[in-house]
Predict the 3D structure of the following.
Amino acid sequence: MPDSMNRKLSLIGIVLVLLVTINACKTTRSAYKKPLKEEGPSYLFRKLKKEQLKFEWLTAKFRLDLVVDKKLNQFKGQIRIKKDSMIWVSFSPALGIEAARLMITEDSVKFINRMNDTYFVGDYALVNQFLETSVDFDVLQAFIIGNDFQQYEIQNFRASIDAMEYKLSAAARRKVKKYVKAHEVPEIFIQNIWLNPENFKITRVNIKEVDNENRKLEANYGKFKEVEGQLFPYDLNYEISSSGAKVLVEVRFTRILLNEKARFPFNIPSKFTRII
């Protein structure tokens, strides 16, 4: 395999942990049996926003299966989030020695790969070029924790019932103007959101680009457990599809802590080589 492809897969493998869903091991869907009352999108969004995870700090341990180009890689690790500010992830193989570290802010993406002494420092434009999709910090954070996007409009959704769950669908979801940065050309997404009718937690979500529907991010959430009075999905399945290729990620959280201040250490050793 060409060295450039190895670098691409390395970057995709690390960043995708923070993205997308659904593989052969799908999360069990809702077993809700009662007939659902039809509700409008405004009502469903009010319920969604009320029940979504609220936090300032989040720390979690996880186990992860990653499938890239039909090759399975298994990791364990830790993720730390400062809401709307920073995402930090440490990956380790079975032996427990850290293999890679990732840090994402609103404007930058950095990672170090200790397996081959390399590192990457860049912005979302370059990462999205590699991933052949378009995401920002708000989208990443939402996909990780099972919340809705905070910086995007909700006016253009319609509501329906699908497989005994509520479904919200938008043919064109845009970023709210006040969040659009200078010189930024925000993406417009086609989006679907499925809600559990009992607790209004998101069980599944996907987005496609309006100008390229072959690029898709999808996520499934399950095994909800109570964490400090709030429901959190301990099982997540992610998928990214683009140009006929798929990358699959299955995440199983083993411990969740909310609102305990965390550190985000990230030092690049001088001997490491920048790969891009």
